[in-house]
Amino acid sequence: MDQVPPVTRGRQVRSLPLPHRCNNPRNPACAHCGTVIIPSPAAIMPLEDTPSISVGSWTIESRKRPILDTPALSQWESEHLPGLGALPEMIFGGNYVRIRCDLDESKHWDIEFNALDALREVPTEDSGVRVSCASDWLRSKHRRCDGAPPQIAKQYDWTYTTRYRGTVTGCPLVADTTAELPLAMLAKPDPILFFDDMVLYEDELGDNGASMYSCKVRVMPERLLLLARFFLRVDDVLLRVQDTRLYVEFAQNRVVREWKRYEADYNEVFKRHRGGVPPHRDLRALLRDSNWVVDHLPIVERTCETIQL
After folding, report:
1. 3-state class of 300 per DSSP?
2. By three-state DSSP, how is residue 123 classified?
């Protein structure tokens, strides 16, 4: 791929931003700031938003559609996820974020984040997590068939915890324990060319908390950052966040993927911060905010991978 020539100013050498373009006329760039307009300013039926932008050899696209209806849920349960036992209450099965690199006509690499592949990585065995009213929860999971003794319904991870880090097509990323996200580069006040965020699936765990997988991406002239987050709150029991961050430097065709797991006992976090929250703030409301929670949980696991395309 042709590289953008460097610009020399004294001793400082830097690369010019790669050219970019909007790919979907329904999501044009703002005439004032250049950011792709999301959601589309034009009404579309059936409801669907598919913005896309290309920067150099990279293309970033996303799609948003409504939650799966009952027939689609039944099909997913029987054909795509038969071992899961039960599906989350809300699945946005048509949503995705896709990042693609076309190095030449024969060499491509992409990574996609979607609900189906995320749910395929939910364990099909009991998670071991119990709600605070465990006996009531267990009774709700019993079933009786034609006078037979009650049995526990099919075992599965009812918290829908997934270690999903994206679906890669092409060369796999390679583990690199020394790699770090370039925080200094990400802290630059670069203009945002493209930003989108979406939920892939969500469940309220029978009014005992929340389980949600979401994804957001922002594209700047020289780089992008994607955050895919699984957030779990089991009231009075557990708080868990699993973050996947994907960083791409466009001119270098370098990808860094970092995954972190944060976890702590719900009541321990509540007790630790009960006296430190201002009077006008509700601590239990803060515990429903994944951004607040992740800042107050310890990191219990981290991996990092890279690839040079």
Report:
1. strand
2. coil
- In this prediction, residue 152 carries a pLDDT of 42
Cα dihedral 118, 155, 207, 92 in deg (nearest 10): 20
Cis-peptide, bond into residue 17, ω within 30° of zero:
no
Alpha carbon of residue 183 to chain centroid:
19
- Separation CA 5–CA 14 (nearest Å): 9
CA 128 to chain CA centroid, nearest Å? 24
Torsion of CA 216, 219, 222, 228, to 10 degrees: 10
pLDDT at 285: 92
CA distance 138 to 151: 10
Q: What confidence tens digit (pLDDT) does each residue in 241-275 have?
A: 999 999 999 999 999 999 999 999 999 999 999 87
What is d(CA 100, CA 241) in angstroms, rounded to the nearest whole number?
Answer: 27
Q: How confident is the model at residue 20 (pLDDT cuts 50, 70, 90)?
A: confident
Quote the tokens at residue 151. 């049995």
Find out whether 282 and 232 touch, Cβ atoms under 8 Å: no
* pLDDT, tens digit, 9 for 90 and up, residues 210-221: 999 999 999 999
For 20, other C-beta atoms within 10 Å of its C-beta total: 20
How many Å separate Cα 159 from the centre of its chain?
A: 16
pTM of the model as a whole: 0.85
For 56-65, the pLDDT digits (tens) are 999 999 999 9
